[in-house]
Amino acid sequence: MSETASAYATRPEAIMSAVSALLGESVRAIAIERGEVTLDVAAADYFAVMQTLRDAPQTRFEQLIDLCGIDFKTYDDGAWDGARFAVVVHLLSVSLNQRLRVRVFCPQDDFALLDSLTPLWASVNWYEREAFDLYGIVFEGHDDLRRILTDYGFIGHPFRKDFPLEGHVEMRYDAERQRVVYEPVTIEPRELTPRVIREDNYGGLH
Question: Euclidean distance between the first and final Cα of the chain, in Å?
Answer without folding.
Answer: 82
